[in-house]
Amino acid sequence: MITDWEDRVAAAWATLDDYDEAGAPEFRAVIDELVAELPDGSPLGPFEQACAWDSTGHSDRAVPLYREALARGLHGYKGRRAKIQLASSLRNTGRPDEGVALLTPELKAPSDELDDAVRACLALCLSSLGRDREALALVLGALAPHLPRYQRSMANYARALVDPEA
């Protein structure tokens, strides 16, 4: 059941751009209908609903739902996505310090394709707190491996921004 459900959720998300601002409630209703199919207590429900609120411009409504999904045990890839998105929503609602606290441990989490998203979102939270050198160091550190040349130099420059003796 879950694979079919996940496929239908992915199909719903593929239509997000078909909804204008006035159609946002309709999109969220599609997600709510899918969530209603889940067993009680599933962490996927509040996660998908949080994503829907967030993606339609309501970070304030998304925050408690992301927290609920994580409290219900959302883990792995979607758990990491929830942390990234929650941190972004916290920043958007004036609480970047909570975003920093949430994402800083993710820098030491097992590596996956979300590593750069963690660093980018953490950098935004840091910048919102006036910690621009740390933010720039994170962004340069995330960018360095993707450069065709100068990877080592950029990684060293990134470290030097926060540790002058590096």
Walk me through what this model shows.
This protein is mainly α and 166 residues long. It has a domain at 2-102: Serine Threonine Protein Phosphatase 5, Tetratricopeptide repeat (Alpha Horseshoe), CATH 1.25.40. Helix content is 67%, strand content 0%. The protein has nine helices and no strands. Helix 2 (24-35) runs antiparallel to helix 3 (44-55), helix 3 (44-55) packs antiparallel against helix 4 (59-71) and helix 5 runs antiparallel to helix 6 (96-103). It is elongated. The N and C termini lie far apart (52 Å). The model has no long low-confidence stretch (mean pLDDT 95).
Topology:
Layout: H1 2-13, H2 24-35, H3 44-55, H4 59-71, H5 76-92, H6 96-103, H7 115-128, H8 132-143, H9 151-162
Helix pairs in contact: 1-2, 2-3, 3-4, 4-5, 5-6, 5-7, 6-7, 7-8, 8-9
Describe the structure in brief.
By secondary structure, the protein is mainly alpha-helical. 67% of the residues lie in helices and 0% in strands.
Could you tell me the strand content as a percent range?
under 5%
Number of helices: 9
Structural class by helix and strand composition: mainly alpha
- Architecture of the domain at 2-102 in CATH? Alpha Horseshoe
Give the N-terminus to C-terminus distance in angstroms.
Answer: 52 Å
Describe the biggest sheet? none
